[in-house]
Amino acid sequence: MRDYIYYTLALFIAFPFIVTFLAYWITKLTKKHTWKAVHNAVQWSAIFFILGVGILLQLLFDQSFFGWIILLFLISLAGILIHQYRNQTEIEVSKAIKIVWRSAFLLFSSAYIILSFIYIIFEVLS
């Protein structure tokens, strides 16, 4: 049973678009609201794109980049909180986290596609 869970997680990390599609499809069936389904799919699949990009970077460069990824998140969150502090009277941490998380989905899904192609090209050429 434990192996089944490990293999499922490995599949979702290797192919995070499956998680995006499944989360969208399940939310669409249960709530019947398209935009809620899109937001739910983004929220649930972002972590798999982040892990996938970290693993692809590790495979390409033989070095772990997870520390740099965490630093990128912290700097992005700090930048958004500073922007909120200067432009608004209140700081909304939950809103800032949502912005960082949705931006991370866009950034890491794009990076995942690019790094996947680079990794495939390197494997074919070597």
From TrEMBL:
Pfam families: DUF3397. It comes from the Bacteria. The chain crosses the membrane at residues 6-26, 38-59, 65-83, 104-122. InterPro entries: DUF3397, UCP030092. Keywords: Membrane, Transmembrane, Transmembrane helix. This is DUF3397 domain-containing protein. It comes from Oceanobacillus sojae.
